[in-house]
Design a protein that fits this description.
The structure is a homodimer of 120-residue chains. Chain A contains 5 helices and 3 strands. Chain A is mainly alpha-helical and 120 residues long. Chains A and B meet through helix 1, helix 2 and helix 5 of A and helix 1, helix 2 and helix 5 of B. Chain A binds a DNA duplex (30 and 30 nucleotides) through helix 4.
Chain lengths: 120, 120
DNA sequence: GTGCGTGGTTACCCCAAGGTGAGCGAGCAC
DNA sequence: GTGCTCGCTCACCTTGGGGTAACCACGCAC
């Protein structure tokens, strides 16, 4: 997706961070990752219920992209009504781990003292 | 900015990751962060030259948002021609540090063996 | 006077990500 | 038959982030 001229790629490529940003660069991607970590092996409908507000279209397209990116595994059973189960791959788990410091940073600034640099 | 109903905020709020994503959720933000880490205390024009492809408008608006988010410090001198210097705040430095595992993940998957989960 | 260089702002446009709502295909309950 | 479930797909529309380009004020060099 987004095969536009990657910024920072001019000088070779920035640092690998852009690669990661492409993978998690979707409104719901990190939340899907998080949901799949806390609730492994979920079905489509369960995932949708875990992410209030997401639409089927967006969930489906995000899951397909994440599958193509190798962070999500999709297993569909030939049943009726259809059953599909999603889980994290090893790479997805490692991505989730790599996201933790960022989450910690966000948590820290939400709860921590607000008197470091910003006046308000 | 973006006071839309945050996904994941329904259940309290996801994990702090969304906070971080809001701060770095701009096409060039992480690259600005990176540039400012490798070249501390840069002027507007220098920054623009460090980020080939970025436009003045986008650089200016991103810098303002990042200043409002408390990750970038802006110091302007009352001279002519005008001089403004940008640098990272403590929070910005910590954000950059928190980004490193993500960069490592991206670097690893770019260079590492491509035979873990994805077939190609 | 003209031009240059600085660090922006303003107005406008564009396109892709995301949202909306409908439909589908197969089997089962009734 | 009708309607329901499940996991999508399709067609359409809207939103806003980002891109384009012109302009500004100020001093200096010419």
């Amino acid at each position: 997706m987004a095969t536009l001229n990657r910024p920072g790629t001019a000088d070779g490529h920035a640092c690998g961070i852009d690669t990661a940003m492409e993978v998690i660069g979707g409104r719901w991607k990190v939340l899907i990752l998080w949901a799949l970590r806390e609730h492994p092996l979920r079905r489509f409908g369960e995932l949708r219920r875990l992410l209030p507000g997401i639409t089927e279209k967006v969930l489906a397209s995000h899951l397909r992209e994440m599958e193509a990116d190798g962070v999500v595994r999709r297993v569909s059973y030939d049943e009726v009504p259809p059953r599909v189960e999603y889980s994290l791959t090893e790479d997805g788990i490692r991505l989730n781990d790599a996201l933790e410091p960022l989450a910690a940073w966000g948590r820290d600034r939400s709860t921590g003292p607000r008197s470091r640099d910003e006046p308000a």
